[in-house]
Amino acid sequence: MSCLPSPANLSILSIASSMLLLSGCVSTTPSSSVQKQDLAGLNSELNSIINNSCTASFQCKVLEVGARACGGPSKYVVYSTLNTLQEKAENIAAQITQQEETQNKEKGLTDCLPVLQVQSLCINQQCQSFDIK
Q: What ranges do the domains of the chain cover?
């Protein structure tokens, strides 16, 4: 009687161990539908925390959000620092930008349509945007 396992036992053992190892593998690349949901969710979250009420124009800020394939933000968001958590808005905007950059690289997007930069003013106690021409 030999201490070495038979070739049949070795192949069964190697198959079982391979299955055990592979059963713990999970795809770390999110599908594009999951990314779109995340992107939509982040945009909704950003819109829900934005408050445009103001008492003076210095409270009105413009936030660059997203990424176009040819550079620059995909949009500008105007908000008031009076009732909006600035750091939280900036963090969400950064997440949106990162996801759009990834999406542009993965899909090879080449959106080069210009997005006009905006400025903001407090008009009628609301931060409002106007295009810079």
A: 52-133
| Residue 51 near residue 60 (C-beta atoms within 8 A) | no
Read off the amino acid at residue 45: E
Q: Which of 86, 89, 76 is nearest to 120 (CA)?
A: 76
Q: Rounded to whole angstroms, what are the CA distances from 101 to 28, 49, 89, 90, 105?
A: 18, 23, 18, 16, 6
Contact, 49 vs 92, CB < 8 A? Answer: yes
The residue type found at 84 is: T
Report pTM: 0.69
How much is the average pLDDT of 90-101?
95
Instruction: Give how far Cα 83 sits from Cα of 19, 41, 73, 86, 128, Å.
Output: 54, 21, 24, 9, 15
Task: For residue 109, give the amino acid letter.
Answer: L
On the question of pLDDT at 80 being above 50, the answer is yes
